[in-house]
Write a structure and sequence with these properties.
By secondary structure, the chain is α/β, with parallel strands linked by helices. Helix content is about 40%, strand content about 20%. Bound molecules: uridine-5'-diphosphate.
Length: about 325
C-alpha cells in the first residue's frame, strides 16, 4: 500500500514507518518538524514538511503520491501542557485532524489509522480497561483525541471514510535506529535512563501514596515495535473491508509500578539510579491497564516483546548508540 504517515518524524511515527517499509509498503512522511526530527525520517520514505492545518498541501501530497491510506500520528500529547494551554490542543488535535479529513475526502483516500490514547478513559471505571468502558477524559489531551475519534464515526457514516482508532497505553522501547527523544522529556523510561547515564541527577517519583501494592502508579508498557505492528495489521484489514473499529493497545497483565520500572532499569543498566520522592502529578490515574483482547481476537495482533526488561534494554541500547 501507499501510506502517508503524519507525525512520521516523531518517535512512534518513525518506528511505524520502519515497519511499513520493511513489510513492502510505500511511505510518505508528512511532518511539520515542530517536534519531530528530520533525521528521524526513515531512509526510503518520501518526506513532505507541512502543517496539518495546511489542507491544500495535504491534499496535494495525497494526490501526488497516490496515497491509499493515512496513519495519523501528528498531535500534541502532553497532558500537563494541555491543561494549561487547551487552545493548542483543540487547534492541532481537532482542527488539524479535521483539515486532514477534508484533504482525504478531496483526494478520495478512504482509510485512516488514528493514534488515540488511554487518556480518553479518564479515571477508569475498572481494570483492565475495555473499549466499551466509559470515556470521560480528565484533561484536554484526552478530550481532543476523543473528539476526533467521535468525528471519525460520523465521517464514516456520511462519507464511507473507514478508520481504526488505536488507544495506546504506555509506548516504550526502541528499534536499532529509532527511539524516544522529547524535549523536554516527560516520560518515565527515558527519564530513568537519562539518570542512569548521568544526564540528569535523579528520578523524581510522582507520588508514592497511591492505592497500589507499592504506592506508585501502575502502567501498561508496550514495546513500540508491537505497537507499530498493530498499525500495519489495521491498515491491511481496512483495505480488505474491515469495518471501522476502536482498539486498546497494551500488553495487559499486571502492569508495572514506577518503582518496578526503576528497579528493572537498575538491573538492565547495572547503574545506580538516584531517586527522590515528589508530589503526585495532576491528572495521573493510579492504574491504567489495557484489555487488548479485542484487537487480538479481531486482527490477530500478537505482542512479542512484552517483558519489561526487553523493553528497557532496547531503549538503553538505543540511547547509547544514537546518532
Ligand atoms: N513518572 C514519575 N516520574 C517522572 C515521570 C513519570 O514518577 O519523572 C510517573 C508518572 O506519574 C506515571 C508513570 O510514571 O505514573 C508513567 O508516566 P509517563 O509520563 O511515562 O506516561 P503516562 O502514563 O503519563 O502516559
Amino acid at each position: 500500500m501507499k501510506v502517508m504517515v503524519t507525525g512520521g518524524a516523531g518517535y512512534i511515527g518513525s518506528v511505524v514507518t520502519e515497519e511499513l517499509l520493511r513489510g513492502g509498503d510505500e511511505v510518505v512522511v508528512y511532518d511539520s518538524l515542530y517536534k519531530g526530527h528530520r533525521e528521524a525520517v526513515v531512509e526510503g520514505a518520501a518526506f513532505v514538511k507541512g502543517d496539518l492545518l495546511d489542507t491544500a498541501l495535504l491534499r496535494e501530497t495525497l494526490a501526488h503520491h497516490k496515497v491509499e491510506a493515512v496513519v495519523h500520528m501528528a498531535a500534541d500529547s502532553l497532558v500537563g501542557e494541555s491543561v494549561k494551554v487547551p487552545a493548542k490542543y483543540y487547534r492541532n488535535n481537532v482542527l488539524g485532524g479535521l483539515s486532514l479529513l477534508d484533504a482525504m475526502l478531496g483526494a478520495e483516500v478512504k482509510y485512516l489509522v488514528f493514534s488515540s490514547t488511554a487518556a480518553v478513559y479518564g479515571e477508569p471505571a475498572k481494570q483492565p480497561i475495555e473499549e466499551t468502558d466509559p470515556t470521560q477524559p480528565t484533561n484536554p489531551y484526552g478530550e481532543t483525541k476523543l473528539a476526533f475519534e467521535r468525528a471519525l464515526r460520523w465521517y464514516d457514516s456520511a462519507h464511507g471514510l473507514r478508520f481504526v482508532s488505536l488507544r495506546y497505553f504506555n509506548a516504550a522501547g526502541a528499534t536499532e535506529r529509532s527511539g524516544e527523544r522529547h524535549d523536554p522529556e516527560t516520560h518515565l523510561i527515558p527519564i530513568i535512563l537519562q539518570a542512569a547515564a548521568g544526564q540528569r541527577p535523579e528520578v523524581t517519583v510522582f507520588g508514592d501514596d497511591y492505592p497500589t501494592p507499592d504506592g506508585t502508579c501502575v502502567r501498561d508498557y508496550i514495546h513500540v515495535v508491537d505497537l507499530a505492528q498493530a498499525h500495519i495489521l489495521a491498515l491491511h484489514a481496512l483495505a480488505k473491508g474491515h469495518p471501522s473499529s476502536i482498539y486498546n493497545l497494551g500488553c495487559g497483565g499486571e502492569g508495572y509500578s514506577v518503582k518496578q520500572v526503576i528497579d528493572c532499569a537498575r538491573r538492565v543498566t547495572g547503574r545506580d539510579i538516584p531517586v527522590s520522592k515528589g508530589p503526585r502529578r495532576a491528572g495521573d490515574p493510579a492504574v491504567l491497564i489495557a484489555s487488548s483482547a479485542r484487537i487480538v481476537r479481531e486482527l490477530g495482533w500478537r505482542p512479542t516483546q512484552q517483558k519489561l526488561d526487553t523493553i528497557v534494554e532496547s531503549a538503553w541500547r538505543w540511547m547509547q548508540h544514537k546518532r
